[in-house]
Design brief:
Blueprint lengths: L4 E4 L3 H12 L4 E4 L8 H4 L3 E2 L3 H6 L3 E4 L4 H8 L10 E4 L5 H13 L3 E8 L11 E6 L1 H11 L4 E4 L6 H27 L6 H29 L10 H17 L8 H15 L5 H8 L3
Parallel strand pairs: 1-2, 1-4, 2-3, 4-5, 5-6, 7-8
Antiparallel strand pairs: 6-7
Helix pairs in contact: 7-8, 8-11, 9-10
The structure holds NADP nicotinamide-adenine-dinucleotide phosphate.
The site of NADP nicotinamide-adenine-dinucleotide phosphate (NAP) has 22 residues, from helix 1 and helix 4.
Amino acid sequence: MKTPVTVLGLGAMGTALARAFLAAGHPTTVWNRTPGRSPELDELGVTRAATVADALAVSPLIVVCLLNDDSVRTTLAPAATELSDRTLVNLTNGTPAQARRTADWAAQQGAEYLDGGIMAVPVMIGGPAAFILYSGSEVAFERHQAALAELARPQYVGSDPGFAALHDLALLSGMYGMVGGAAHALALVSSEKISPTAFTNDLLIPWLTAMLGTLSQIAADLEYGAAPGAAGSNLAMQATAYVNLIDASVDQGVDPAMVTPMGELLDRTVAEGHGDEDLAAIVRLLRKVS
Ligand SMILES: NC(=O)c1ccc[n+]([C@@H]2O[C@H](COP(=O)([O-])OP(=O)(O)OC[C@H]3O[C@@H](n4cnc5c(N)ncnc54)[C@H](OP(=O)(O)O)[C@@H]3O)[C@@H](O)[C@H]2O)c1
């Protein structure tokens, strides 16, 4: 028999996780604060637990996917004694500090702990493009890796329980930078009679795709140091051109709120004497902020 699993939380994501476990043949018990959520799971053979304690009692593998850290703590605390000898996998979005605190708390209850970061939207769960970052107990990861692989490709990023959240939030930073930049780009072109769809499909996506190739070089420069004068697009040049981006936005009646901070960072980096370097210099500047 496949490992019985319990899923706490039947929001959009928890429901997708439960569905994937059921589809893979895992006996699946669920609990949700508001009873009766996601009735479609009943046809798939889900077991509904009346209480959190009941839900924890029946499975060695407990997957929690609630709104935030507060909801995880208030949900688990009253049933803490049921966590002994369980593996607690917390897929709720949170910070590294929250993950480390929950790991310590879980250890006090006698549970193995894995923190996770879901790099997917619910419809991707169980599909090939989704992956989930895990950190914490390596023993627990190895024991339950096959079951966790039913949800998404599992990627273990270290024994520090905070590392999954750190990687998750770093990846989200990259995503929000991209979508924020795209939002400003679309505001600019739609200030004129330019098709946002054609602009996006014919120009923006190919451009961003091409620029993705520069990220590896920035990372390598950060890690190993760039050769002097290696920057093909030095920051002093970029800071000068960037002023046009702000000015054109204002001229077109577009709020520059999204793009102004990057201009300020470019200016600061140049002012600190790094105008002949590349974007790795901005990373160094950001890391100085405590
Ligand atoms: N959806 C995504 O695209 C996505 C992607 C990656 C990661 N995530 C993360 O996955 C987690 C769940 O997201 P979701 O999309 O499933 O959210 P959601 O649809 O808004 O569902 C939230 C869930 O949390 C429960 N909840 C909220 N407050 C609670 C409390 N105080 N005590 C107990 N339960 C509480 C809700 O229960 P009720 O039904 O009773 O309200 C519901 O089950 C979040 O941390 C989110 O950041 C989501």
